[in-house]
UniProtKB/TrEMBL annotation:
This is Phosphatidylinositol 4-phosphate 5-kinase. It catalyses: a 1,2-diacyl-sn-glycero-3-phospho-(1D-myo-inositol 4-phosphate) + ATP = a 1,2-diacyl-sn-glycero-3-phospho-(1D-myo-inositol-4,5-bisphosphate) + ADP + H(+). It is an enzyme of class 2 (transferase). GO terms for biological process: phosphatidylinositol phosphate biosynthetic process. One of its GO terms (molecular function) is ATP binding. Its EC number is 2.7.1.68. Residues 9-398 form the PIPK domain. The chain holds residues 337 to 738 of 738 of the full protein. GO terms for cellular component: plasma membrane. Keywords: ATP-binding, Kinase, Nucleotide-binding, Repeat, Transferase.
Length: 402
């Protein structure tokens, strides 16, 4: 199995950063491991006092280390301690995954933002470097985020486990968040999609023959729909509505529904019958913009079917929520009228990249791009519109299996 990313070993330009991060997290998690008291409003306040100095020779509270002299900041450690508890993350597992001897893997910058992504060796956690503004957004929304995930156990929004900052003496600050890897699974992910519901630029820029399992495909690369058993469909739509309501109220836009697919049949990626590049070859750029997703073959019947005869559904839903792990029961089902093939798949998904506030720069981006293309097709739109378009899109790619 091809694992995404490259191990960060000695000599890598971000090796020290990784060491600092590991030292910092070990310190933070260790420090708060024994105390689990009720949260107080003050815990949501990102205090300055959470800076800790890590001199190489060690100090009263920090161990000696081989890396550069640095300072470390924890944001709202008590809140994240509670969040990890809520998300059933075992403290020892968490520490071993991030700070164990195995090095982290750096994913080849999957996004356009310039953020770095690190994956723990066990694949469970992703560490992403973020901008100052993103930390601000997260800290500002933390009380309502906490309420939201507490209230909705099946929420699809990113699970955050920690926010930190590293500052080498005389160097730049690097801020990062630790979150759950949506694709941590015993099943191999064959295809992955990052979907926003907008069309402008939403197509992979990779040449067709370079597209593989770890390529993140986008809206315009998707040419099939997901058929969900009725109750699952309803639960999904209900939960997405709750999550979008939350994001909208927080003034957030630019998030995506990230979907990973595991094909249950003996499915070879190379001879995949899905012609994922059809849209790219048959439509010109302008047409894509004009049509704004209308090419999705809604009337043609689904190619992918989910959730039929799923055993122990209730248990799974409540346990892993809508990371819908489903499938089975499709092998003897007849493909619907005009559809090609129906695949039996296991689906993993969640809403990611939820720290972009619709601020002045996003407003300008919208205004600027609006001169050139249909304003409704671009990613930067106000949070209300964004959420509506996102939900409409989800309604089109998921269909109810009646
Ligand atoms: P941009 O702002 O340009 O969209 P970004 O740098 O903010 O990009 P994200 O959108 O957060 O990056 O993530 C980029 C890609 O990284 C996603 O499309 C996905 O492939 C992968 N990724 C991000 N978060 C997760 C996650 N929690 N689990 C699994 N994969 C993820
Ligand atoms: Ca993104
Ligand atoms: Ca982003």
């Amino acid at each position: 199995v091809k694992k995404p990313g490259k191990a960060l070993s000695k000599g890598h330009k971000n090796y020290d950063l990784m060491l600092n991060l590991q030292l910092g997290i070990r310190y933070t998690v260790g420090k708060h491991a024994s105390i689990l008291r009720e949260l107080r409003p003050g815990d949501f306040d990102p205090k300055e006092k959470y800076w800790t100095r890590f001199p190489p020779e060690g100090s009263k509270s920090t161990p000696p280390h081989q890396s550069v002299d640095f300072r470390w900041k924890d944001y709202c450690p008590m809140v994240f301690r509670h969040l990890r508890e809520l998300f059933a993350i075992d403290t020892a597992d968490y520490m071993v995954a991030i700070c164990g001897n195995d090095t982290l893997r750096e994913m080849s910058s999957p996004g356009k933002s310039g953020s770095l992504f690190y994956l723990t060796q066990d694949d469970r956690f992703i560490i992403k470097t973020v901008k100052k503004s993103e930390v601000k957004v997260l800290i500002r929304m933390l009380p309502s985020y906490y309420q939201h995930v507490l209230q909705y156990k099946n929420s699809l929004v990113t699970k955050f486990f920690g926010v930190h900052c590293v500052k080498p003496v005389g160097g730049q600050k690097t801020r990062f968040i630790v979150m759950g890897n949506l694709f941590h699974s015993e099943y191999r992910i064959h295809k992955r999609f990052d979907l926003k519901g907008s069309s402008h630029g939403r197509i992979t820029d990779k040449p067709e023959k370079e597209i593989d399992e770890i390529t993140t495909l986008k809206d315009l690369d998707l040419n099939f729909v997901f058929r969900l058993e009725q109750s699952w469909f309803q639960e999904l739509i209900w939960q997405i509505n709750r999550d979008c309501q939350f994001l909208e109220a927080e003034g957030i836009m630019d998030y995506s529904l990230l979907i990973g697919l595991h094909f249950r049949d003996d499915y070879a990626v190379d001879d995949a019958p899905l012609d994922l590049c059809a849209a790219k070859t048959s439509l010109h750029h302008d047409e894509i913009i004009m049509q704004d997703m209308k090419w999705i073959p809604i009337g043609r019947g689904p190619l992918i079917r989910l959730g039929a005869n799923m055993p122990a559904r209730a248990e799974r839903v409540s346990k892993v929520g809508l990371d819908l792990q489903t499938g089975s029961g499709c092998s003897n089902s007849t493909p619907s009228e005009s559809s090609g093939e129906i695949f039996d798949v296991i689906l993993y998904f969640g809403i990611i990249d939820i720290l972009q506030y619709y601020d002045i720069s996003k407003k300008l981006e919208h205004a600027y791009k609006s001169f050139h293309v249909d304003p409704t097709s671009i990613s930067s739109v106000d949070p209300k519109l964004y959420s509506k378009r996102f939900r409409d899109f989800i309604h089109r790619i998921f269909v109810e299996d009646k």
